[in-house]
Amino acid sequence: MTIRVVVTDDQALVRGGFRLIIDARDDLEVVGEATDGRHAVRLVEELRPDVVLMDVRMPVMDGIDATRAIVASGSATRVLVVTTFDLDEHVLTALRAGASGFLLKDIRPAELAEAVRVVARGDALLAPTVTRRMLDRFAHTTVPSAPAALAELSPREREVLTLIGQALSNTEIARQLHLSEATVKTHVSAVLRKLRLRDRVQAVVAAYDHGLVEPRRG
């Protein structure tokens, strides 16, 4: 089945480049191009794509507000933020708004195509440097106390959420906790369900926001 993509960026050259990369793959297809966030929201409603590549800084409506609007509409479309800026406050806000992933515009063509596939199948994706930079940033901020929602998690589920926040994969979590990967997947699913999180990216953000991650200092 072909993965249908909408490309959103205020620069025609960027949109054209992404279209060339995506349309060159047999399983991917660009079905629309949006010049700003408001246009993207309209195209998502009209075309119902699987994935939207979303720039952050655009006129009329930026990528954050567009992401928030798409998620709030209940659309099944996944938002993949693609930006020049390596983890500024706008990216953190976009992830909290419901984006399923984040990439930099200097990504290689094959990596971009694979990122679209990853997000389309319901997984979450962050650029390799993002989680570490998020940890560094949160080392210098005041972390709020854990909300009542975390009380619904079992001790093991809380432990799994903490490790997700440290950017560990299911394989790495299984190894560290001496569990099978199947068991880890069950715990991850329970965490997402109990905290009403869309995906793994939202779990990472939740782990930071709720003080479960201990950032490296110095």
Overview of the molecule:
It contains 10 helices and 6 strands; from the N terminus they run βαβαβαβαβαβααααα. The radius of gyration is 17 Å and the shape is globular. Helix content is 49%, strand content 13%. Helix 3 links the parallel strand 3 and strand 4 (78-83). The mean pLDDT is 84. It starts with a strand and ends in a 9-residue tail after the last helix.
Layout: helices, strands, pairs:
Elements: E1 3-8, H1 12-23, E2 28-34, H2 37-47, E3 51-54, H3 63-72, E4 78-83, H4 89-97, E5 101-104, H5 109-120, E6 125-126, H6 130-138, H7 155-165, H8 170-177, H9 181-195, H10 200-209
Parallel strand pairs: 1-2, 1-3, 3-4, 4-5, 5-6
Class by alpha and beta content: alpha/beta
Mean pLDDT score: 84
Major sheet description: 6 strands, parallel
Oligomer: single chain
- Along the chain, the helix and strand elements come as EHEHEHEHEHEHHHHH
Q: How are the strands of the biggest sheet laid out side by side?
A: 2-1-3-4-5-6
Give the end-to-end Cα distance, rounded to a whole number of Å. Answer: 48 Å
Q: Into which percent range does the helicity of residues fall?
A: 40-55%
Net shape: globular
What percent strand?
A: 5-15%
Taking Cα atoms only, what radius of gyration do you get, to the nearest Å? 17 Å
| Number of helical elements | 10
Q: Would you count the extended β strands for me?
A: 6
Q: Which regions contain 5 or more consecutive residues with pLDDT less than 50?
A: none
